[in-house]
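Task: sequence design from structure.
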């Protein structure tokens, strides 16, 4: 008997998520010194973690024998105050990835479908397929979301529309006006998930007021994370804002202690570290310009980005990726499921890291 046959076909056919290569793995494989490796592959914050947040983390260490607060009261209270939403509208997750899974657990099933864009975040097709739901991929427009086509693709069995704004891996954005028009147009029986993992990297004028839209649109779910601008990717904490009924359903299907106690305390502290986030924003903009300049000098095109990463067209990306690895620089290939075989996605690092990347890229293109 093949034990695989015991699993539903839609589970057996899942292609696992390909994360950015860890520094330790490359060091092992190539015999390189970890300290000399530059990882620009997972959109992590090159500034690390803020000082206040570090202090909050240290103060939790004496209580690790105890379970966390399963309701995450303090973090939800902090989020509630910051964004002016009821605590009953907040769902915490082990990273926002967890929250996306909770949406699929609560609302997707065989016989239902979910709509997403070509070049979308890999978790959307994964979370859809893992529930036995059908994924409807809509061709991109200028690498970004074609909202008209996505609205038209909504089928009778569609339950969820997934949208990342800005989008990963393309860095493209939909304007607040166009996004709001889309939300108005989607039937109320269909949930619209707006994944704002990169929200903190947007200029205020480009930020959609999605939290306010929640009052008018009970079918809207907004997700955010502490992994990017807040510099807490390793701790895994994110959240969703939704109508209380939707939030309640998501809370029913989560693990009772899905966010650990260190993450809860760190996220609450990070939320107050406004200066850290402001600096991350400013340095990211400078880094984006630095990489654009470098790409221009190398005669390369890129997709204009609104995130903390930029996707550059390098031609034979799989080869260039390997040549960069040999030089101790890890970026992200976006062929395969992302369908961008000529591009590489590069996270904006520190000025020195960006410089290292550009030098390694120049050498790799000549090789
Ligand atoms: C990075 C990212 C996330 C966040 O993942 P976490 O699980 O919160 O670390 C979510 N959505 C998109 C589009 C991302 O790029």
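Answer:
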């Amino acid at each position: 008997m093949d034990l695989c046959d015991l699993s539903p076909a839609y589970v057996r056919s899942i292609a696992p998520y390909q994360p950015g290569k860890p520094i330790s793995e490359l060091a092992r494989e190539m015999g390189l010194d970890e300290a000399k490796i530059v990882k620009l592959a997972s959109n992590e914050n090159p500034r690390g973690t803020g000082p206040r947040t570090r202090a909050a983390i240290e103060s939790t260490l004496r209580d690790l024998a105890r379970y966390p607060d399963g309701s995450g009261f303090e973090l939800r209270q902090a989020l509630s105050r910051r964004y002016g939403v009821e605590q009953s509208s907040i769902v915490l997750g082990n990273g926002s990835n967890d929250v996306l899974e909770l949406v699929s657990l609560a609302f997707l099933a065989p016989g239902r479908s979910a709509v997403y864009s070509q070049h979308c975040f890999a978790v959307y097709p994964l979370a859809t397929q893992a529930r036995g739901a059908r994924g409807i991929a809509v061709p991109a427009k200028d690498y970004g979301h074609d909202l008209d086509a996505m609205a038209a693709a909504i089928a009778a069995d569609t339950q969820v529309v997934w949208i990342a704004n800005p989008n990963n891996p393309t860095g493209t954005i939909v304007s607040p006006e166009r996004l709001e028009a889309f939300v108005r147009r989607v039937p109320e029986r269909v949930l619209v998930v707006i994944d704002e993992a990169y929200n903190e990297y947007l200029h205020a004028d480009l930020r959609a007021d999605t939290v306010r839209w929640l009052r008018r649109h009970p079918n809207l779910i907004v997700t955010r994370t502490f992994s990017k601008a807040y510099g807490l990717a390793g701790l895994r904490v994110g959240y969703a804002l939704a109508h209380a009924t939707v939030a309640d359903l998501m809370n029913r299907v989560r693990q009772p202690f899905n966010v650990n106690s260190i993450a809860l305390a760190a996220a609450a502290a990070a939320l107050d570290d406004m200066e850290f986030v402001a600096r991350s924003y400013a340095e990211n903009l400078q880094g984006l310009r630095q990489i654009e300049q470098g790409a221009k000098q190398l005669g390369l095109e890129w997709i204009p980005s609104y995130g903390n990463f930029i996707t550059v067209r390098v031609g034979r990306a799989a080869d260039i990726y390997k040549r960069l690895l040999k030089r101790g620089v890890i970026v992200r290939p976006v062929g395969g499921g992302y369908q961008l075989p000529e591009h590489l996605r590069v996270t904006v690092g520190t000025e020195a890291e960006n410089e290292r990347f550009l030098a390694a890229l120049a050498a790799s293109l000549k090789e």
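The first strand starts at residue 38 and ends at 39.
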